Amino acid sequence: MPVQLVDHPLVHDALVALRDKRTTPEHFRRAATRISVLLAAEALRELPTSSTTVDTPLGPAAGRRLAPDVVVVPVLRAGLGMLEAVLELVPSARVGHIGLQRDELTAVASQYYAKLPASLDASYVLMIDPMLATGGSAVAALDLLGRAGAHVVRIVCIVAAPEGIALVEQRHPHVVIYTPVVDEGLNQHKFIVPGLGDFGDRLYGTV
Ligand code: PRP
Ligand code: URA
Fold it and tell me: Which residues of the chain fall below pLDDT 70?
């Protein structure tokens, strides 16, 4: 099951704010954080926990703590707009960064930065990148994570295109993609239609 559609009223409410071309960077950032909390919570639903006991002021209470090492990897730059939300959910997560930039003419992604935590083989890796368009950036990031030893990787995105999903499925069949929506497809500039435009530009006001 490579795609998990996250269907929640709050997700759709934030998505419509992100899509709206009138949304300012300030409100765009807030909607990005809001939707990312919900998407990440869903992507982390299967995280194993270990049993524990804590003392409340009234006595012992059984509970569960996160068991695995969680590593979150934003794909720069747009993925940074989702990072704060994930760290709010998993404050102990380690963070890796992968910098990828699509060429404006060819839409081919090239890597300009990478810094990953060590020992990813036993980690639960959450790759965050809001837009899955051709899938070129996602596959480049997944290739890098694979070479770094990552075995369990989930992608959280905000808008996905069928082309990107197909490429990830073909090249990394074990990776699960969490998204609220699969849009119609790509235009001649390889932008998602209807999509929301250039996520990074709208996030940072660089349009
Ligand atoms: C965007 C987006 C993805 C990529 C998706 O980044 O954040 O990384 O495009 O497109 P793809 O699936 O066709 O590869 P962009 O390269 O525009 O860089 P930015 O985040 O710095 O704006
Ligand atoms: N990157 C974006 O920010 N938006 C798209 O539609 C495609 C790639």
Answer: 1
* CB 192 within 8 Å of CB 18: no
**pLDDT at residue 1, rounded to an integer:** 62
CB 133 within 8 A of CB 186: yes
> Which of 192, 196, 204 best tests ligand 2's pocket when mutated (most atoms within 8 Å of CB)?
192
Q: What is the pTM of this model?
A: 0.96
Provide the token pair at 81: 């707009």
133 CB contacts (<8 Å, ≥6 apart)?
A: 107, 161, 163, 164, 186, 190, 191, 192, 195
Q: Copy the structure tokens of residue 172.
A: 């990394």
Instruction: Report the sign of the C-alpha dihedral through residues 173, 176, 189, 83, in that order.
Output: negative
Q: Which are the contacts of 100, defined by CB distance < 8 A and separation ≥ 6? A: 75, 76, 109, 110, 111, 112, 137, 140, 141
Task: Return the closest-CA partner of residue 93 out of 114, 120, 131.
Answer: 120
Angle of helix 136-147 versus helix 162-171 axis, rounded to 10: 20
Query: Structure tokens of 128?
Result: 């965050």
Does 168 contact ligand 1 (Cβ within 6 A)? no
